[in-house]
Amino acid sequence: MDDILLEGKGLSFSYEKKPVLKNICFSVKRGEKIAVMGPNGAGKSTFFLNLNGVLQAGQGEIFWDGKKVGKKERRRLQRNVGFVFQDADSQLIASNVRAEVSFGPINLGLSKEEVIERVEEAIEYLSLSDLQDRPPHYLSGGEKKRVSIADILAMRPEIFLFDEPMAALDPINAEKVEQILYWLHKEGKTILVATHDVDFAYRFADRVLVFSNGCLIADGPPQEIFRQGEIMERAHLKKPTVMAIWEALRKAKLVEEQGEYPRTGEQAAEKILALHDIKK
User: Fold this and answer.
1) Which residues contact 93 (CB under 8 A, 6 or more apart)?
2) How far apart are CA 212 and CA 45, in angstroms?
3) Of 79, 101, 137, 211, which residue has the fewest beta carbons closer than 10 angstroms?
4) H or E segment at 73?
5) Are strands 59-64 and 4-15 parallel, antiparallel or unpaired?
6) Distance of alpha carbon 246 from alpha carbon 257, whole angstroms
């Protein structure tokens, strides 16, 4: 966790002379789970597009594995930093799922054997075997999301960028996507997720990056970030439910006043039951 995979120094980017990113400095360590938060228009998606080389900052520098990435090295980012779009339909282009998942590896110039191996692996990993001959645009929202993740998985990047991966999904499919994020992290991947869901960010992330008006205004552990009222207000965020409940219980002296906050409802229940010596 000590080695820095991706680093940015003084990144700034504008659309038609309108500043969207302003002097962004950050680093991403291998194996981290990072939530990227902020209101609509704060610059989160543009930040991601700069990280994977689709866009190039007008000012500032990006470093991959300690080496500066210039115009000629942008393909290094595109190979190592995969971006899963919020709207799966904007990412899906092929006539069937198998062809869709093959697209990225083929563009990397891999051998036919390597492409087949990667596609089979991604299809199995995302449980898409029964769907591989179907047109992706006729699938359900949850199925499309899994296909869009398989697209990127087949390219085997070191870092995955997810832009609002649970947006427009029902609770069951959102839970499935969240489980996939945990699986990817367990496999050693580094995960950045742009999200408005503070409850998800609180239970999932090791770090939270907070954007507002194109600026990175906070970077730290979830418990630290979500305690800062000024930051929360500027980023249009609210306190995670479990955290708010736990603080209310502390104020009422119903739970211990020291120690780590629980990150999930299950952890909170376990702490309360243990405190009162109640067995499940």
Assistant:
1) 100, 103
2) 13
3) 137
4) none
5) antiparallel
6) 10
The 3-state DSSP class for residue 275 equals helix
How far apart are alpha carbons 102 and 104 in whole angstroms?
Answer: 6
CA distance 145 to 123: 13
Q: How far, CA to CA in Å, does 23 sit from each of 13, 20, 62?
A: 9, 10, 12
Name residue 208's beta-bridge partners: 35, 220
> Which tokens in the block code for residue 257?
């006043």
CA 136 to CA 130: how far, in whole Å?
12
Measured CA to CA, the distance from residue 29 to residue 66 in angstroms comes to 11
Where do we find the tokens 């954007």? Answer: 211
Distance CA(280)–CA(259), nearest Å, equals 22
pLDDT (tens place) for every residue of the chain, 280 residues total: 468 999 999 999 999 889 999 999 999 999 999 999 999 999 999 999 999 999 988 899 999 999 999 877 888 898 899 999 998 888 888 899 999 999 999 988 899 999 999 999 999 999 999 999 999 999 999 999 999 999 999 999 999 999 999 988 899 999 999 999 999 999 999 999 999 999 999 999 999 999 999 999 999 999 999 999 999 999 999 999 999 999 999 999 888 877 788 999 999 988 888 877 765 5
pTM tops 0.85: yes
How far apart (Å, rounded) are the C-alpha atoms in residues 137 and 155? Answer: 21
First to last CA, the chain: 36
Q: How far apart are CA 222 and CA 109, in angstroms?
A: 40
Q: Which residues contact 126 (CB under 8 A, 6 or more apart)?
A: 146, 147, 149, 150, 153, 180
